[in-house]
Design brief:
Elements lengths: L1 H19 L5 E9 L2 E4 L3 E2 L3 E9 L8 E2 L2 E2 L8 E8 L3 E6 L11 E6 L1
Parallel strand pairs: 1-4, 3-9
Antiparallel strand pairs: 1-2, 4-7, 5-6, 5-8, 8-9
């Protein structure tokens, strides 16, 4: 029993270690997208750095999320994808859904790096 407890503790530490150390300076931005909108938990960061966008498709058709030249694959309704982007300069970066017609219908915006 003691061995199982020790093993479970070691696994728990290994599971959280990458997020606690290597990703300590990564900002997490939650993104929900559907017909035809994006809602971001924040639309800016205070300085250049790495952002992990967690995109959840809450719509009824496929969508993706593109920013700073990187994009998720097409995400099925109800599914989630993670996109890690490093912003090296201050500025405003457009984000959008690349599915034909979706950006024009409202799935676009600007993400600011101050």
């Amino acid at each position: 029993m003691k061995l199982l407890t020790t093993l479970a503790g070691a696994i728990a530490i290994l599971a959280i270690a990458p997020f606690g150390s290597a990703h300590a300076n990564t900002t997490i931005v939650r993104v929900k997208g559907g017909e035809f909108f994006f809602r971001l938990s924040t639309r800016s960061i205070a300085r250049p750095g790495t952002v992990a966008f967690t995109f959840k498709n809450v719509g009824h058709v496929v969508h993706d999320f593109k920013v700073n030249g990187k994009k998720t694959p097409l995400i099925q309704p109800g599914h989630t994808a993670r996109l890690v982007v490093t912003f090296k300069k201050t500025g405003k970066y457009p984000y959008l859904c690349t599915v034909l017609g979706h950006a024009a219908a409202g799935m676009r915006g600007l993400f600011a790096v101050r």
